[in-house]
Amino acid sequence: MSGRTDSKRFRVRRDSIPAARRHVRTVLVGWKLGGLADDASLIASELATNVVTHAHGTGDYFELGLRRRNGVLILEVADSYQWLMPELRKPTDDETCGRGLLIVDALAERWGVRPRNPGKTVWVQLATGARSL
């Protein structure tokens, strides 16, 4: 089964983080990709947390997109914050934040950031384990 898509908007506020996590799990179980639900929902949670933490006040919503195509799950989080693009960095031992993209990097097959007008989209690829013709 290939070619499925899902998109949902969430308000830029703290209670959207667990809502995004639950949404990803529900969609993936429905798509029979429950084996990816833990990793994908954690990634969604980290990216949503980044939006709520860094993009607050720049727009009312962020968008969470899921696409299943040719053995790959693509998860995207888009917001309208355009001043800083996320970068992978190693926080010092005494920093209490800044590890979200390290988690994303550890779980993802590939990930990146692309600009949009306004803002950016952070995308993540996870292998589904099945390639379709």
Descriptive overview:
The chain is an alpha+beta fold and 133 residues long. The protein has a single domain, classed as Heat Shock Protein 90 (2-Layer Sandwich). The chain is 31% helix and 29% strand. It has helices at 16-30, 37-54, 100-107; strands at residues 4-11, 61-69, 72-79, 110-115, 120-127. A five-stranded antiparallel β-sheet has the order 1-2-3-5-4, covered by helices on one side. Helix 1 (16-30) runs antiparallel to helix 2 (37-54) and helix 2 runs antiparallel to helix 3. The chain is globular and about 35 Å long. The N and C termini lie close together (10 Å).
Q: Can you tag this structure with a few keywords?
A:
133 residues; Heat Shock Protein 90; 5-stranded antiparallel beta sheet; 29% strand; globular
Question: Looking across the biggest beta sheet, what order are the strands in?
Answer: 1-2-3-5-4
- CATH fold title: Heat Shock Protein 90
Number of domains: 1
Would you tell me the overall average pLDDT? 86
Name of the CATH homologous superfamily: Histidine kinase-like ATPase, C-terminal domain
- Percent helix range: 25-40%
SSE series: EHHEEHEE
Overall shape: it is globular
Work out the helix count.
3
Structural class: alpha+beta
CATH classification class: Alpha Beta
Characterize the biggest β-sheet: 5 strands, antiparallel
Uncertain regions: pLDDT < 50 for 5+ in a row? none
Beta-strand content estimate: 25-35%
GO molecular function, one term: protein serine/threonine kinase activity
Protein name: Histidine kinase/HSP90-like ATPase domain-containing protein
Organism: Kitasatospora albolonga
Domain Histidine kinase/HSP90-like ATPase: 14-125
